[in-house]
Amino acid sequence: MGSGKALPIVGPQPWRKQLAHGARSVADLVARDLVSEGEVDTAQAVTARYELLVSDYYLSLVDPDDPECPIRKMALPDGAELVVGTVERSDPIGDGAHSPVPSIVHRYPDRALLIVTHRCPMFCRYCFRKVALNEGQIRLQQLQGAYAYLRKTPSIEEVILTGGDPLMLSTPRLRAVFEALGAISSIKRIRIHSRMPVTLPMRIDGPLLELLASVRPLHLVTHFNHPREMTDQAKAAIDGLRQAGVILANQAVLLAGINDDLDTQTALWRSLVDWGVRPYYLHHPDLTVGTQHFRVSLDHGLALIRALRGAVSGLFQPTYVIDIPGGLGKVPVDSAYVEANGPGRWWLTSPIDGTRLDYYDPAHERAAL
Could you say which of 165, 330, 359, 361 is catalytic? Predict the structure, then answer.
C-alpha cells in the first residue's frame, strides 16, 4: 500500500499525547495563564454549555499578552457565547432534516455527508455544529445503517467524511471506513473535511499518510482561517499530504475581528496557494447559537470579497458562500442566488429546489452603527 515514496512523520510528539496535554477544562486554561481568576466563572458557564478542548499545539499559538489574538478568539471560551440571538439555531444548516438514517446527511442528489465522529482536536468556538459536538461518540458498528443507505442509493457518487473531525479516528478505524466505502461500487470519490492540519498537524504521520496514499482519488479540504495558523508544523503536514497524492483545497469562515479585513484575507489565500492548496470556500457565518459576536454582515462580506478580487490574482480567489438556513443548500453570495431585499434583508434562492427564503442579516444593524 502507498505511493512508493518515503513519507515523512510530522512532528516530534505523538498526536495522542498532544491531545492529552491540551486543555479540557477552565482550570487547564488558568494554569496556562490564558484565563484570569476574574474570568473563571464566565468561562465555566460557557464550557458547561459548549464543551472545551484545545490541543497542546494549538494553545502554543495563543499570544497570552494579546486579548485580540485571533487564535485566542477561535479557541478559548467567551462570555458572548451565552447570548443566543433570536434568529440563531442549534442546527443552522438543517443537518437533521436531511438525515434519512443516523450518520448520513443527504442534501444533494449526487453526494452525501458521512458523520464518523463527534470528536475534534479542538472545539472551535464558532463551529456550526457546536451543539452536535457535545453528543456522545459514534461507534463504527453504528455506521452499518449508513453503509446500507449508500448501497441502496446509487445516485450518491461522492461521500464526504465529516464530523467532528474524521482524522480523530485511529488509522486502523479510518482504514475500515475506507474499505467499507470502497466496497460500494457506485461511490467514485471520497472527500475528507478536516481541521487537523491546522489544530494538530502531528496527526498527519507516516501510517496515516500511507493509508491516504492508497485511496484514489482522495480530496481533503483543510480549514485555515488565519495566516498565524500557517506554521512550520502545518506546512510539514500539508507537504506530507501532497506527497501522498491527496488533492487539497481550503475553506475558511469569515469571522469578525479575526479575518474580516483585506490584508488578512490576502495573506491567507496567497500563503495557501504557495503551499499548493487550492482556495475553495469562504463561508459566511452560519446562524449558530452563541456565535453572534463572530458574525459579519453580508454587505461587509461582499465588499471584502470584491476588494480581494481587485487586489490579487484569480489563483487566490475563494468562492464566498452562504448556507441557506434549514438545509436549502449553499450558494455564492455574489450571484443571482442572493438578492438584496431592503436594509438587512436578502432573498436567498435554493439551488436544490428553487425555494426563496427571506433572510434577515442579524449583523446588519451592528455593522451600520
Answer: 330
